[in-house]
Amino acid sequence: MAANPIRTCISDNEAQLGALAMKFRATRDRAERDVIAKQYAKMVKELVKNSCWKEMPPPEDQLPDEFMPKQFFQYWSR
């Protein structure tokens, strides 16, 4: 049986959020953090667009609040 392509896509994007959060925490360079935060926001936008994001990422897969995209909070507060 083939995997559900939507579920796989969501899982890949969710995994990417965790990887980006880890990369973010591994650097103190502000410019690099800004680039990572933009990549993170792009992943969040994709997850929101697909409307099948079922679980909020755990804290370790999130960026500090001041770097989290507004879309993330809007999505999870509905």
Rg for CA atoms = 13 Å
Approximate helicity band: 55-70%
Which descriptor suits the 3D outline?
Answer: globular
- Strand-residue proportion: under 5%
Element pattern in H and E: HHH
Quaternary structure type: single chain
Task: Work out the helix count.
Answer: 3
The span between the termini is 34 Å
Domain count, please report it. 1
Low-confidence stretches: none
Largest sheet, strands/sense/barrel: none
Q: Given the helix and strand composition, which structural class is it?
A: mainly alpha
DSSP E strands, number: 0
Overall average pLDDT: 88
Brief summary:
The protein is mainly alpha-helical and 78 residues long. It is built from three helices and no strands.
Structural description of this entry:
Helix content is 63%, strand content 0%. The termini are far apart. It has 78 residues and is mainly alpha-helical. It has 3 helices and no strands. It has one domain (7-52, 60-76). The mean pLDDT is 88.
Give descriptors for this structure.
single chain, 78 residues, 63% helix, globular
Topology, element by element:
Elements: H1 5-25, H2 30-50, H3 70-76
Helix pairs in contact: 1-2
